[in-house]
Design a protein that fits this description.
The chain folds into 3 domains: 8-64, no CATH class; 85-324, 2-Layer Sandwich (Nucleotidyltransferase, domain 5), CATH 3.30.420; 379-434, no CATH class. Helices cover 41% and strands 10% of the residues. The chain contains 14 helices and 5 strands. The chain has helices spanning 8-19, 21-25, 28-40, 44-64, 75-105, 164-173, 189-203, 221-231, 248-262, 272-281, 293-297, 305-320, 404-411, 427-434, and strands at 114-124, 130-141, 145-153, 212-216, 243-247. The strands form 2 sheets. The chain has a 3-stranded antiparallel beta sheet, with helices on both faces. α1 crosses α3 (28-40), α5 runs parallel beside α9 and α9 packs across α10. It is extended. Bound molecules: zinc ion. Residues 134, 291-292, 294-295, 304-306 line the site of zinc ion.
């Protein structure tokens, strides 16, 4: 709302009340009524100073007003938010570096434990609360790889009113989980939150008084924070515990540098763009057998949270354990052994087992399976059969090749002189044609 404008009369009332003891005893409406009588009898010159004071006050008020951005937000408030976000980001980075420094000082970086966590969501509301659909977390260390996993499908019972089509589109293009009320999994949010807290505490058992920290990808950080906020909504204040959500990609970067320094390798060749690219390449994306059954059956492993946290463990192991001479174990540092679902056919197998579709014109091999076209633009023909290929040989002569005059003669034998070419006409023909019978 724009600030109230000053006017000359109210300026006069204000000053009159300040200068008269009688005025100070009056209420504002009484003072206004009293001053109205005086104002009526004042000349323009007498009113002049009050008019200019009001103008000056209006200009001063406009200058004091907060400048806004195009979204109607005060610029100073937006800048303040940005400063706070940068501050938080800096604190997170320092905290990650501290965890690694502690590990290194205790000569136990290999056994330092990290919890990786990911959420799938149905929809997000305006206050950056996400309605969760699936959760997974795993405990990881360089030495032992991925040692335990917690995962659950989530049934939040209902979505936010008016967001159904948005949720359907999001689900369709990513996790393909059925929307509430048909959603599967845990439907009691408080119980789920307590179970997650219990799992996280068991993972942080080395440091029971420390904060609960989970790592997730930069992209999922707002989702994981928003889902935890949603799950803890119904909890009592004393049961809530602050879960810190940190960036796994920053962890990967500093861990890579740290590990290379420990191995006396030049770590200054590593920067965050390199580790981010390795992370984004997601080498294990198409591995089967690492996601939950629902996503395994639908071939949506890439979007399964259980598969995500497992893949992060494998990526980190793949790029870090080698420097520390840690032996990679299948199912812990690398995906479990895959069953081969394909068959390699040697190109040198016996000719009789091959059913070739390339039959040359002179070939003795007969095509056994006749190709039946399914597309109307294609056609099926045998190279041996000349009539199927008129352009190759056996071209048939076209009819109507004679000159028009011969054609006419052939079709209609000459009945009179006008149908006969001049060179072939006889005198008799001409005479006959003049002796045509006439009607009388
Ligand atoms: Zn899944």
């Amino acid at each position: 709302m724009p600030p109230k404008k000053h006017n000359a009369f109210m300026m006069f009332v204000h000053q009159w009340r300040n200068n008269n003891a009688e005025g100070r005893r009056m209420t504002t409406p009484q003072a206004v009524a009293h001053c109205g009588e005086i104002w009526k009898n004042m000349t323009e010159q007498q009113r002049g100073p009050y008019s200019s004071q009001a103008k000056n006050a209006n200009v001063a008020a406009r200058a004091k007003r907060e400048p806004m951005n195009s979204c109607g937000q005060a610029i100073s408030a937006v800048e303040q938010e940005e400063r706070e976000a940068a501050e938080k980001q800096m604190q997170m980075k320092l905290a990650i570096e501290r965890i690694l420094r502690d590990g290194r000082e205790q000569h136990d970086l290999e056994n330092t434990k990290f919890v990786f966590a990911a959420f799938n969501y149905f929809v997000k509301n305006n206050e950056s609360i996400y309605i969760p659909a699936e959760f997974a977390a795993c405990l990881y260390s360089l030495k032992s790889g991925k040692t335990s996993t917690y995962s659950s499908l989530i049934n939040p019972d209902h979505l936010i009113f008016g967001h159904n089509s948005e949720a359907r589109d999001h689900a369709e293009s990513t996790h393909q989980l059925p929307l509430p009320p048909n959603a599967m999994g845990e439907s009691d949010m408080s119980r789920l939150y307590s179970n997650i807290l219990e799992y996280l505490r068991s993972c942080h058992s080395d440091n029971p008084h420390g904060p609960l920290v989970v790592f997730t990808s930069s992209e999922l950080m707002p989702v994981v924070k928003g889902c935890f906020r949603y799950l803890s909504c119904d909890m009592d204040e004393e049961d809530k515990q602050n879960i810190l959500v940190y960036d796994i990609q920053y962890l990967f970067y500093v861990l890579k540098k740290e590990v290379m320094e420990m191995a006396h390798l030049p770590s200054n060749t590593i920067n965050k763009s390199i580790t981010d690219t390795i992370f984004a390449n997601d080498f294990f994306e198409y591995h089967s057998g690492i996601s939950c059954q629902y996503h395994e059956d639908r071939d949506r492993s890439k979007y399964c949270t259980q598969s995500m946290v497992a893949r992060w463990s494998y990526i980190l192991s793949d790029h870090l354990c080698g420097h520390l001479a840690i032996k990679l174990l299948l199912g812990k540092h690398l995906p479990p052994k895959q069953e081969r679902k394909f068959k390699v056919i040697s190109p040198n197998v016996d000719d009789s087992s091959r059913n070739t579709s390339f039959v040359s014109c002179k070939s003795e091999v007969k095509q056994e399976n006749k190709f039946v076209p399914t597309d109307h633009l294609m056609f099926s023909a045998s190279v041996e059969n000349a009539s199927d290929f008129p352009s190759l040989n056996a071209r048939k002569p076209r009819v109507n090749h004679q000159p028009l005059s011969d054609y006419v003669t052939a079709q209609e034998p000459a009945k009179n002189v006008w149908n006969v070419s001049a060179s072939k006409r006889s005198v008799k023909d001409v005479e006959d044609s003049f002796n045509m019978s006439r009607r009388h």
